[in-house]
Structure formats: structure tokens, C-alpha cells
Specification:
The chain is an alpha+beta fold. Helix content is 26%, strand content 31%. The longest helix has 47 residues. It starts with a helix and ends in a 10-residue tail after the last strand.
């Protein structure tokens, strides 16, 4: 019985230690001011790595600068090349300015006596003008004749604004065989003039070219298709014919003044 009493005392003691409805322990609460709330999220512009952005923008600005610099350099080079080309064209035009005003043309009057005109329409003289031309006689076709006479006439001086005229009525010639007899390789033998005879009325005048020295001492050659500065005169052509002759212009050519000194010819 003693043991049962002891057990009862133990149960009573434990019961007293249990918390009853009126003995609820108050939970200790942390003051609101001491609670650490999560930090607010920073604005979006603070989340950007501006150092990296600055580096990228700097690279882009440098690239754009290089592009503009390259474009400006290219444009400047193009302008410079255009200026150089224009300077060359101006220089070439100035060099050709007098030569463009020296030319020839053939007059075919009603009387049938052809006249070859050598014109210097520049305000400066030209010197040592040599004109090479041929005169077909008795033409049977456009390129074939009975007689073809070759002429090489030297005009020492073409005055400014002048027209030098070679009239076919003063053209003489000798047969090719006779010319071989009086020509000694470097000169004509004395009495060669006796072999000359008047040229029958030619059917045309075929001019191979006109060479001359301009005021600057440059040697030029004008043909029916071109004007060029040369060192050697171009080759001569010779018409097809049954007979050939060597020609000579008698007397002093007729000289007239041109209407003006402003008539440029196409160079």
C-alpha cells in the first residue's frame, strides 16, 4: 500500500507542473523595430554596369569617327584627282591652243583650178610649214588615175591671221623616170628645172598632212583626222596610177588675211 501511495504522490506532483488553461505562458515577441525587413530593390539604372556601357559607347564613337575620317579622306582624294585632271586638261589645251588654229582646206572653184589653203588663224606666226599632197590626173576610178603627182611644199613662214594659197595653175611636175636622172641623192643637178612641165588640171587634191613649228618650238602634224605633236612626220600615201611624177610649185604663193583670229579648229 505504501508503494501505491508513493506513485500517487508522483502523479500529483507532475499534474501540478503541467500548464493549465489559465497558465498559458506568454510567447516572447521581438519588437517590430528590431525586425530586419528585406532591403528594397535598387532602380533599374543602378543595376546597369555603366563602366561597360561607357566602354562600348566609346568604341562605337571611335568606329563612327574612323568611318567619317575615311569618307572625308576619300572625298578629298577624289577632289584632288579631279583638280589634277582638270589641270592636265588645261595644260594640254594651252599647249595645243595655237596648233588648233593652223589647218588646211581645198577650194574647188567653178573654173576647175583647185586651190589649197594653208591657214594660220592664231595671233602668232608658225614656221617651217611643210605640206604633203598629191594630185591625181585623168582619174578612172575613185582611187585610180592615169597620172599621180606627189608634192612636198615648204612654206618658211605662215604669218599671224593669214591664208596662204597654192593655186593649181602654178603646179609643175616631171615624170618619175626624169626625176631619177636629175636627183643626185641629196640634191638636184643643175638644169633640173628644164625637165618641169605644167600639170594638167587635177581631178582632186589629196593632202597627207601639214607639219609646222608653233611659237614654243613644238613640232605638230595635222592630218584630215588628227592633230598631234610629233617627232617624225607620218608616212605618205600614194595614189594608184599608171604613171607617177614629182611635183613642184612655181612662184610665191598668194597670201591673204583671214577674217579674224578666233577660228579654232577641232583638235
Amino acid at each position: 500500500m505504501r508503494d501505491s501511495g508513493t506513485a500517487r504522490q508522483v502523479r500529483l506532483r507532475l499534474a501540478r507542473q503541467r500548464t493549465g488553461p489559465n497558465r498559458v505562458r506568454a510567447r516572447e515577441r521581438t519588437p517590430r523595430s528590431e525586425v530586419q525587413e528585406p532591403a528594397p530593390s535598387p532602380p533599374w539604372w543602378r543595376r546597369i554596369h555603366w563602366t561597360h556601357v561607357g566602354a562600348v559607347l566609346g568604341a562605337l564613337v571611335a568606329l563612327v569617327g574612323l568611318i567619317f575620317t575615311g569618307a572625308a579622306t576619300y572625298y578629298q582624294a577624289a577632289v584632288t584627282n579631279d583638280q589634277l585632271d582638270q589641270s592636265r586638261e588645261d595644260e594640254q589645251y594651252a599647249k595645243r591652243s595655237q596648233a588648233m588654229r593652223v589647218f588646211y582646206w581645198v577650194e574647188e572653184p567653178a573654173d576647175g583650178h583647185l586651190r589649197l589653203h594653208l591657214v594660220n588663224s592664231s595671233p602668232d606666226p608658225v614656221s617651217d610649214a611643210d605640206v604633203y599632197f598629191g594630185a591625181p590626173v585623168g582619174s578612172m576610178t575613185a582611187v585610180y588615175s592615169d597620172l599621180y603627182v606627189s608634192y612636198e611644199q615648204r612654206i618658211p613662214y605662215l604669218p599671224p591671221c593669214s591664208d596662204t594659197i597654192l593655186d593649181s595653175r602654178h603646179w609643175l611636175y616631171m615624170d618619175e623616170g626624169q626625176y631619177d636622172k636629175v636627183y643626185a641623192g641629196t640634191h638636184l643637178l643643175p638644169g633640173w628645172e628644164k625637165s618641169l612641165k605644167p600639170l594638167p588640171t587635177p581631178d582632186a587634191v589629196w593632202v597627207d598632212g601639214l607639219t609646222f613649228y608653233d611659237r614654243d618650238g613644238a613640232w605638230w602634224q595635222r592630218t584630215s583626222t588628227a592633230l598631234e605633236q610629233v617627232e617624225v612626220a607620218g608616212p605618205r600615201t600614194e595614189g594608184q596610177a599608171d604613171h607617177y611624177g614629182w611635183g613642184y610649185v612655181r612662184g610665191t604663193p598668194e597670201l591673204k588675211a583671214t577674217a579674224s583670229c578666233s577660228g579654232d579648229q577641232a583638235g
